[in-house]
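Q: What would this chain look like folded?
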Amino acid sequence: MTHFATVLSAAMTVETIDRNLTDAVPKGHVRLALATASLCGTDLHYYRHFSNAGFNMQRAVTLGHEACAYVVDANGSTLTAGKLVALNPIINCGTCENCSAGLENHCSNKKFPGSATTVPHIDGFFQAAFDFPATCCYPVPDGTNPEHLTFAEPLACSMHSVTMTGAKQGDRILITGCGPMGLLAVVAAKAKGIDVHVTDVRGGPVDLAVQIGASRGFVAGQHDPDNDSYDAVIEASGSPHAFNTALDTVKRRGKVSILSNIQLSDVPVNLHKIMLKEVAVTGSFQFNAEFKQALDLITSGQQEFEQLIAARFSLADTRAALDYMLAGKAAGKILIKPA
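A: My prediction, written as structure tokens:
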């Protein structure tokens, strides 16, 4: 079977190719046709540098780990041909100590598509057809919008960050950064009955965050949130400046959850405030049970996701989509469509 695929062959270089799938679907896998995919900041790092967080690509690879697809060949699984499925990109072993504890995000033998963290690399979802483990495919109710379903993976990541804060209904949290992950963190926190405030250097994304559920928004440098006033803060921008804001605004003995990949810079970070305020700082990496929670929220219809779609590009225009994201033009998710 020949299909259309995109390949990142070097930094800032995306090529389109015809790729062949074997006639036989591998055991335990199903054959899928892409329904919708979306761009992640991780994809952008690989596009810019051919590496991310110290992991260097060793060969050309197809990017993409946020997607949903239609089943083409169920290959003996319980799935049915034509069914729309959400794709959990975490391919975990299910048997290691972390998997047994429900911590699939820390699986000792984890594989992840479109990433240099898995060697040999596994091609991701920015292609028209592919085979993927049946256990990672989650069927959804008929009528589910595939454009909204592609939010499952990033929404699950944002939900996990909320989980890591320990915030509960009635608490107040601040989210620093209103990029796609920050916006989805607003959705995740709102779904738990948490009062959400946001801050960003850009007014447009702040306004969007308020439209989708934040009760208050601050444009940094014009209006700033009060210090020592939040039960928890989610850092979603990747900026050391924002991390300092998190340390300033969180209450004493509060918690800061880092959803972003904070970039190294010459900006001094006020680490002494962690000690003085007894702040608990925690990372937030991927997700566990939150993937199913994200699916429940998306398919329930309780949240409107249309406002979070910034742009749509065809699979053939994946490079243009990445350039659009690189230019900072998107105040939401950029979708990749098969045609």
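The mean pLDDT is 96.
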